[in-house]
Design brief:
Layout lengths: L3 H14 L4 E5 L2 H12 L3 E7 L6 E6 L13 E3 L8 E2 L13 E6 L2 E4 H7 L3 E7 L1
Antiparallel strand pairs: 1-3, 2-3, 4-8, 5-8, 6-7, 6-8
């Protein structure tokens, strides 16, 4: 697999399209950090890291609106990819939907959202946009 983050986002996107409640994704440390951010920002209901003999599995419980069954995640977009990395300095960090969405960045201080990176005044690689 060339781009595990794109695979992670695609698995979540596909599970939302068929209205699955839970999605299983092969684990890595970067995927675990992105999952924690999704949970903290309220885009997913819950998550669990399971260890098997290989690399482990992330089980993500997707979040839907109880009245109209609309998903909490409307759009997942991969920005930086293996063939074309996208970096942003601290003063040029992207704003998703004028602050309503989040951009996930990989920085020297770890994986964080664009708002946290702005507070700490650091830039990094823009991994994805979430709305």
């Amino acid at each position: 697999m060339t781009d595990p983050i794109a695979d992670y986002l695609t698995r979540i996107r596909n599970a939302i399209m068929v209205k699955n409640k839970v999605v299983d994704i092969p684990a890595s440390n970067l995927k675990k950090d992105i999952t924690k951010i999704l949970f903290e920002k309220g885009y997913i209901l819950n998550y669990k890291f399971e260890d098997d003999d290989l690399q482990g599995i992330i089980k993500i419980a997707l979040k839907y609106n109880p009245e109209n069954k609309k998903p909490a995640i409307k759009l997942l977009t991969r920005v930086s990819r293996p063939g074309l990395r996208k970096y942003a300095s601290a003063d040029k960090l992207p704003r998703v939907l004028n602050g309503l969405g989040i951009a996930v960045l990989s920085t020297s201080q770890g994986v964080m959202t664009d708002k946290e990176a702005r507070k700490m005044n650091i830039g990094g690689e823009v991994l994805c946009y979430i709305q």
